[in-house]
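To: structure desk
From: M.T.
Subject: fold request, one chain
Message: Could you run this one when you get a chance? Sequence is below, nothing fancy, just the single chain.
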Amino acid sequence: MEKETIDMICRSAVSKRDLQSDRMAHYVVRAMLAGVYIGFALVLSFTVGQYFYEVHSPVTYMMTALFFGIAFILIVYGGGELFTSNTMYMTIGTMKKVTTWRETILVWMTCYGGNFLGILLFTTLLYFSGVFQSIGEDHLLLTLAEKKMTLPTSYLFFRAIFANWLVCLAVWIPMRVKEDMAKVVLMMLLVFTFFISGYEHSIANLAVFLISLTSPHSEVINMGGFIHNLIPVTIGNIVGGGFFVGMLFFFLNEPIKRKQIQRKPIIVSATKVSNQKL
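Reply: Done. Structure tokens follow.
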């Protein structure tokens, strides 16, 4: 049913592998761009959300989540490489045998590193801009960072599965429509769903934590909490995108192998035939 989409994903997986192996610097820059785009969207989302947070509005988190989908649109149309969506691309490519697991892991590692470097660059520039240097410890962004750093490991892992399940669907489903406006609306809605539901996205969390660590923050926000969150969330994202989207759709679109029914030959005795003639 989704054969054309899988073929498109396989071509993209091969392209990502070739770019990563043949033009590493170009691939890293594309991954860095994705990190920067996420930084832009987070600053917008939490700047808007803070206005509602200060007046204790019940729509605070909804308004914050509403604009985060801009990051995904920038990545898709701006030529970025995002680790979490690549968990789906490369898994399908490997299951279809157009890439190998070794190549998949190399792409994942390079992309994750590039996303981190992009967010680090964005955070450094943001620090010198002074945008978040005058905020208080009760700022919405810092409040969210504290919550993420103190959640139980099991919560983080399963929330990460849900997050990347939705993020990869935000890639998969728009590929099945033609109009750009329809693609944009679908991306925004699916990313909004993951964000407002409180799920955990490793690359978005990198941006939240690095911005929080370079802003006036409480002792709860520290490197221990950073690592406590990122390890289970990264693993959960791989499971959500690689298994629940990549492997699942690969399985659903494999050709049906029908069993051959062997028919036994009917042996008719000569006596019986002569009796029928009589």
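Reply (cont.): The longest helix spans residues 24-54. Let me know if you need anything else for the meeting.
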